[in-house]
Amino acid sequence: MSSTRFASRRDLWGGAVIAASGGFAILEAMTYQVGELARMGPGYFPLMIGCFLIALGILIPLTPDPDDMEADAAAQEQPQPSRKDRVRGMACIAAGIALFIVLGRFLGFLPATFALVFTAAMGDTSHTIRTAALLAAGMTLFGAVVFVWGLQLQFPMFRWG
User: Fold this and answer.
1) How far apart (Å, rounded) are the C-alpha atoms in residues 144 and 153?
2) Which residues form a coiled coil (predicted)?
């Protein structure tokens, strides 16, 4: 019983620290011009991060008890990924980010986004080439709608050179 009480207290303190960090981020963001969604100021992003941290700090103590989660995991008996699979995942994510940077500069937003999502998805052993390509196509379309048309991001969709 005392270990459950300790875990709950630890989660409560951890959530409070994260929420307080979010509050400080919001206070600091308010010293800058925040702007609005269509024309974001320098304080907009820190304000949103602060709000996210406060929400996360509230949710942390509400998470299930770790002992209950261990019992559920034991009941499901899912195999843990091997070290090789974990390294593959990290390498694919890093390669996807590098591809986005390079392809974004030379080919534009759409090819860069597709390459990023496809490469990162291939880091998960449960994805096939087909499922990774479908995921990448869907995320590329979503990114085009949100960032290019919705937010009018100044990033060309296609470019050569």
Assistant:
1) 9
2) none
Q: How far apart are CA 101 and CA 95, in angstroms?
A: 10
What's the length of the chain? 161
Write the CB contacts of 145 (distance below 8 Å, at least 6 apart in sequence).
none
* CA pair distance 143, 100, nearest whole angstrom: 13
DSSP state of 148: I
Predicted confidence band of residue 65 (pLDDT cuts 50, 70, 90):
low
Distance, CA of 117 to CA of 136 (rounded, Å): 5
User: Which of the two residues, 86 and 111, has the higher pLDDT score?
Assistant: 111
pLDDT tens-digit map of 11-39 = 888 889 999 999 999 999 999 998 887 88
pTM equals 0.55
What angle (nearest 5°) sits at the alpha carbon of residue 70, between those of residues 78 and 64? 120
Distance CA 18, CA 108 (A): 37
Token reading at 117: 């999502």
Q: Which amino acid is at 155?
A: F
What amino acid is encoded at 110 in this protein?
L
Q: Which tokens sit at 51?
A: 């709000």
